Automatic annotation (TrEMBL):
InterPro entries: DUF4179 (IPR025436), RNA_pol_sigma-70-like (IPR039425), RNA_pol_sigma70_r2 (IPR007627), RNA_pol_sigma70_r4 (IPR007630), RNA_pol_sigma_r2 (IPR013325), RNA_pol_sigma_r3/r4-like (IPR013324), WH-like_DNA-bd_sf (IPR036388). Residues 25-75, 100-149 form the RNA polymerase sigma-70 region domain. The chain crosses the membrane at residues 243-262. This is DUF4179 domain-containing protein. SUPFAM superfamilies: Sigma2 domain of RNA polymerase sigma factors (SSF88946), Sigma3 and sigma4 domains of RNA polymerase sigma factors (SSF88659). Residues 237-323 form the DUF4179 domain. Pfam families: DUF4179, Sigma70_r2, Sigma70_r4. Keywords: DNA-binding, Membrane, Sigma factor, Transcription, Transcription regulation, Transmembrane, Transmembrane helix. It comes from the Bacteria. Gene3D superfamilies: 1.10.1740.10, bacillus anthracis domain, Winged helix-like DNA-binding domain superfamily/Winged helix DNA-binding domain. Belongs to the sigma-70 factor family. ECF subfamily.
Length: 674
């Protein structure tokens, strides 16, 4: 299959964007042709698909954003056009494969084509189809079962049902190691499952091979380009005629627009004087949201929706909750008492929001103990605007977590009621700034590529170089991001890997910070905090019981001691991290094996402590557990005690080390002038 990349596309909203899109489609025409013909099963409709989809993308190109890579965006447009054309499809070509595909229901067909013919990952398919990844795998499983019968394998298979649900993960090499061991052990002994899985795999292979069979007819795209050129010619003629009429109405429109601005000015000033929520005011003053002040009261609690702000990353509802009968602050929790009735119609459920509520301490409560001002973060809108139907059945009481941990009382309290809102929201645009800075932090190459200033967040996009043999996962925490000397803090749990990199060896990430409201960025300053690394380097530690204990071994740049202790029928193996204070290796992943394979008759105990940057141990009760102060410490496992029952001393015991986790501290500062 031809590899689809984005290097040939200048992603811009220039006046030549039609040519840009057409050229990209031409470079990847075979990839798109196999998608269209597989979906529609009709040569003539596939030609119509290209024509309509290119025009659709041209029209929507100014709204294209980088929350979806360009390849996925193109397929999403082709997919929507396919759905429209499928309703007019009365004839499928005489081809056994195409006829079999058409027998699937819509979601099964789309998932199978995208996954096996177009080679998208489950995550990408979920994003394109607006589904959860688990739902994608369910539809794939159903599709393959149907195709297996259509391809002549029959339907009389007796594989064990509890293992059938794992076929997709196993064949896609995405099953967790422990589950994979159990899965393969079962299949080694079960002939029914072997036959079931074997034919299941044959169907996926046939699907993948079909993508090389479809041949695009000569002159196919030339004919489409000629139709598009003629369409644009006619469109410009009509626009020229309309411009004369529109010009004559300009004076009248100016009069009405001026009146509208003046009539709304006094209400805006009034709310500005009376509103005490600074974040709400910031959105209003910068024309990113409107004063809504929607109110609903139930069971002695009044909820006021102050404003709503939407961009391509999330939809944020800013609210105030007042307990009118007692001094209890309450907050909304999405999908735990707060639910959007029309979420699948209006929200892009494949994108997770970037904001999470912070932990509340006593100082943040302020004087009004019965009032809580908060934010509800929802997925972004599907369209440019819409009305969110928010239904609230329960509210969670805001707890002072430090006090709760101190007194050992940590039980959630809820307030039941019925609050319903219809919230109008309009998508706001963001500003993108290209960054071109490559640095090396603690021996790790970083490349900062893009800054996106969106209404609800500031997004930093960067890549980390990893060679092909690397099995590391990284999570970077930044101390701050400064734009024009204004400090923005990183949002909780906001760093994640994304799919926008162009180079194979560079893994792309994005991190969310507080929103930035000022105009004109001339300086970007990035300060690191720490880098968490998980390395899946494996090592088999073989314990020879005929040798003397203890002894040491090296793993992950740290020294470990292995000791043995006998307690009746139990054999205790103690693995101690000798460098836990200054080696920055926090934890190791252990899987015990004996000569025959996996050992299941064992217990494991950990000795875990908190360690600061200087390697000093800190008692948990000495710090505020839920405060930002916790980020200055790392959890370190000093030792691991594995207790095995009835170990044969004549056999060596194998302990597989599956990887380790470590923390690298750095306060490096990267300055990027714009």
């Amino acid at each position: 299959m031809q590899q689809v990349n984005e290097t040939s596309l200048n992603i811009t909203t220039s006046e030549n964007s039609l040519d840009t899109i057409t050229n990209w489609v031409e470079q990847h025409q075979h990839f798109l042709y196999s998608f269209g013909l597989s979906y529609l099963g009709n040569q003539q409709l596939t030609e119509e698909l290209f024509y309509k989809a290119i025009l659709k993308m041209y029209k929507g190109f100014p709204r294209y954003k980088h929350n979806m890579n360009f390849k996925s965006w193109v397929i999403a447009n082709f997919l929507q056009t396919c759905r429209e054309l499928e309703k007019t499809n009365t004839e499928v070509e005489e081809h056994a494969f195409l006829k079999a595909i058409q027998q699937l229901n819509q979601t099964e067909k789309e998932a199978a084509i995208l996954t096996y013919i177009n080679d998208f990952t489950h995550e990408e398919v979920a994003q394109i189809l607006q589904l959860l990844k688990e739902n994608v795998k369910e539809h794939l499983h159903s599709a393959i079962q149907s195709l297996r019968k259509a391809f002549g394998y029959g339907s009389n298979f007796n594989g064990c049902k509890e293992y059938q649900k794992d076929y997709i993960d196993y064949l896609g090499h995405s099953m967790e190691r422990s589950n994979k061991i159990e899965f393969e052990t079962h299949f080694y002994h079960c002939e029914s499952c072997q036959e079931d899985l074997g034919t299941f795999q044959d169907v996926t292979i046939q699907l993948s091979e079909w993508r090389n069979v479809f041949k695009m007819p000569e002159g196919f795209l030339k004919k489409i380009k000629e139709r598009i050129a003629e369409h644009e010619k006619e469109k410009h003629k009509k626009l020229k005629k309309r411009s004369i009429f529109i010009f004559s109405l300009t004076g009248v429109l100016v009069l009405f627009i001026s009146y509208g601005i003046l009539s709304g000015m006094f209400s805006k000033l009034y709310y500005t004087w009376t509103e005490d929520n600074e974040e709400v005011l910031a959105y209003i003053k910068n024309d990113l949201g409107e004063f809504l002040n929607l109110e609903a009261e139930s069971n002695g609690v009044k909820i006021t929706i102050k404003t709503a702000v939407a961009d391509e990353f999330q939809t944020v509802i800013l609210y105030e909750i007042e307990d009118t009968e007692a001094n209890n602050p309450y907050m909304m929790v999405y999908e735990d008492g707060a639910y959007v009735e029309n979420q699948y119609d209006i929200l892009n459920m494949s994108i997770f929001p970037t904001y999470y509520p912070p932990f509340l301490d006593e100082e943040e409560k302020g004087d009004r103990q019965n009032v809580y001002q908060g934010k509800l973060s929802l997925p972004p809108l599907k369209e440019d605007s819409g009305t969110i139907k928010l239904s609230i059945s329960s509210l969670q009481k805001v707890i002072d977590y430090n006090e709760a941990m101190t007194h050992g009382d940590f039980e959630m309290e809820y307030k039941e009621g019925e609050w319903n809102f219809e919230i109008p929201v309009t998508m706001k645009s963001s500003k993108e700034y290209a960054l071109d800075k490559e640095v090396e932090i603690e021996g790790i190459p970083f490349r900062f590529e893009q800054l996106i200033v969106a209404p609800t967040t500031t997004m930093l996009r960067y890549s980390v170089y990893r060679d092909e043999q690397s099995e590391e996962n990284l999570n970077v925490k930044f101390n701050q991001l400064r734009l024009n000397d204004e400090k923005l803090n990183q949002n909780l749990y906001s760093s994640l890997s994304v799919d926008f990199q162009l180079d194979m060896n560079w893994t792309a990430f994005q991190t969310s910070f507080e929103p930035f409201f000022n105009e004109g960025i001339h300086d970007v300053v990035i300060q690191f905090k720490n880098i968490d690394i998980v390395d899946y380097e494996t090592m088999m530690l073989e314990l020879d019981f005929s040798k003397e204990f203890p002894y040491t071994f090296e793993y992950g740049d740290s020294t470990f001691t292995v000791d043995k202790k006998e307690e009746g029928q139990w054999t205790n193996i103690i693995i101690t991290n000798e460098d836990y204070k200054d080696g920055n290796l926090d934890d190791i992943f252990i899987g015990p094996y004996d000569a025959e394979g996996y050992v299941d008759n064992f217990d494991m105990h950990f000795d875990t402590v908190l360690v600061d940057k200087e390697g000093n141990e800190v008692a948990l009760e000495e710090i505020d557990y839920y405060s930002d102060e916790m980020e200055n410490y790392r959890y370190v496992t000093r030792s691991y005690e594995l207790r095995f029952e009835n170990i044969d001393p004549e056999k060596n015991l194998k302990i597989r080390l599956d990887g380790f986790r470590k923390t690298i501290y750095s306060d490096e500062i990267v300055e990027i002038p714009l």
